[in-house]
Amino acid sequence: MNEIWAYAAAQLNNPTDDDIRAWLHKYRLDITAGCFNFRPNTSDPTKLSLHSYGIAIDWDPLHNPRKKPMTKSLPDWWYDIWVKHGWSDGRHFHTPDPMHVQFATGA
After folding, report:
1. Buried-exposed string 1-35: b where 16+ CB fall within 10 A, e elsewhere
2. Spatial contact of 70 and 91, defined as CB atoms under 8 Å apart
3. What pTM value is reported for the model?
4. What is the 3-state secondary structure (H, E, C) of the chain?
5. Is the pLDDT of residue 66 over 70?
6. What are phi and psi of 19, to 5 degrees?
7. What percent of the chain is predicted at pLDDT more than 70?
8. Model pLDDT for residues 11-25, shown as the tens digit of each residue
9. CA distance 12 to 34
10. How far is CA 79 from the centre of its chain?
11. Phi-psi label, residue 54: left if phi above 0, alpha if psi -120 to 50, beta otherwise
């Protein structure tokens, strides 16, 4: 999250914290559908979702729905930062889930 904040700050000229928050909000990078949620996996209800373990986060689900064909509003640089820190995302899932980032690679 610090790197996402720093990226936003670099896009602005001498920003205040409020400027950075407004920039992130403009691109809906501050909207989450949550992290911890004890529930079954949507693809395989016999397994628990990674949200059940608190190792997955969904971002701006309204504009990044889990569906085919994939539609997303989250920028590539944003995914790159998550991946750089060991996270993976749902863009590669059988049914793309671009809102989803997870700290697990095998799921």
Report:
1. eeebeebbbeeeeeeeeeebeebbeeeebebeeee
2. yes
3. 0.89
4. CHHHHHHHHHCCCCCCHHHHHHHHHHCCCCCEEECCCCCECCCCCCCECHHHHCCEEEECCCCCCCCCCCCCCCCHHHHHHHHHCCCEEECCCCCCEEEEEECCCCC
5. yes
6. -60, -45
7. 97
8. 999 999 999 999 999
9. 28
10. 7
11. left
What are the beta bridge partners of residue 90? Answer: 97
Cα–Cα distance, 18 to 52 (Å, whole number): 33
Largest CA distance in the chain: 51
Q: Could you tell me the residue ranges of all domains in the chain?
A: 31-102
List the structure tokens of 97: 């889930």
